[in-house]
Amino acid sequence: LFRSLALSSRKNLCVHPEVSALRFGKEVDGKCHSLTASYIRARHQDGSVETCHFYEEFDAQGRELPIPPGVYNLDDLKAYGRRKGWCPYFLARYSILHANIVVYSYHYLLDPKIAELVSKELAKKCVVVFDGDRKS
Q1: Could you read off the pLDDT of 64-115 as tens digits, one per residue?
Q2: Are the C-beta atoms of 73 and 41 separated by less than 8 Å?
Q3: For residue 14, how many C-alpha atoms fall within 13 Å in the half-sphere facing its CB?
Q4: Which of 1, 50, 85, 87 lies 20 to 30 A from 64 at CA?
Q5: Pairing state between β 70-72 and 3-7
Q6: Helix ranges (DSSP H) in 17-62
Q7: Rounded to an integer, what distance in angstroms lies between the CA atom of residue 80 and that of residue 58?
Q8: Which of 92, 115, 95 is nearest to 105 (CA)?
Q9: Is 104 within 8 Å of 118 (Cβ atoms)?
Q10: SS3 call for 4
Q11: C-alpha span between 41 and 113 (Å, rounded)
Q12: How far is CA 25 from CA 20, 21, 22, 91, 123, in A?
């Protein structure tokens, strides 16, 4: 079963209406974190804070089975996420555990924090393709 997917930033994969409308990546990252962090989610139990329903749905159901075999670019991941009601960013991050090929920006390789995080999650026999496109 072959799986290939593009891995990108929250800014490029977010489908949350409020968060995805933000213009800059750091704003998207900050707002996403404020809706998905474990300490925020713990406080949500009493209804006092907002969380991301796309992340909550992914967390509840998205880890049960790997993404179906296929080739997924950013638009495909977003469409699949919308269809399922799941966060495409966290779906992609989880799916690299099962991917045969992962395409991501070479900028991620240059960022030690991201490179370490991604390399730990890659499947043992995964091929990584670095994309030099500025939009990645």
Answers
A1: 888 999 999 999 999 999 999 999 999 998 998 889 998 887 776 677 776 6
A2: no
A3: 25
A4: 50
A5: parallel
A6: 17-20, 25-36, 38-44, 53-57
A7: 12
A8: 115
A9: yes
A10: strand
A11: 24
A12: 10, 11, 8, 19, 27
> For 41, phi and psi rounded to 5 degrees?
-65, -35
Residue 133: is its pLDDT beyond 90? no
Reduced to 3 states (helix: H, G, I; strand: E, B; else coil), residue 82 is helix
The angle at the Cα of 72, spanning 101 to 60, to the nearest 5 degrees, equals 100
Longest dimension (CA), the chain: 45
Residue 67 · residue 95 · CB < 8 Å: yes
* CB within 8 Å of 126: residues ≥ 6 apart: 96, 99, 100, 101, 102
CA–centroid distance for 10 within its chain:
6
Cα separation of 109 and 76, whole Å?
23
**Distance from C-alpha of 31 to C-alpha of 25, rounded to nearest angstrom:** 10
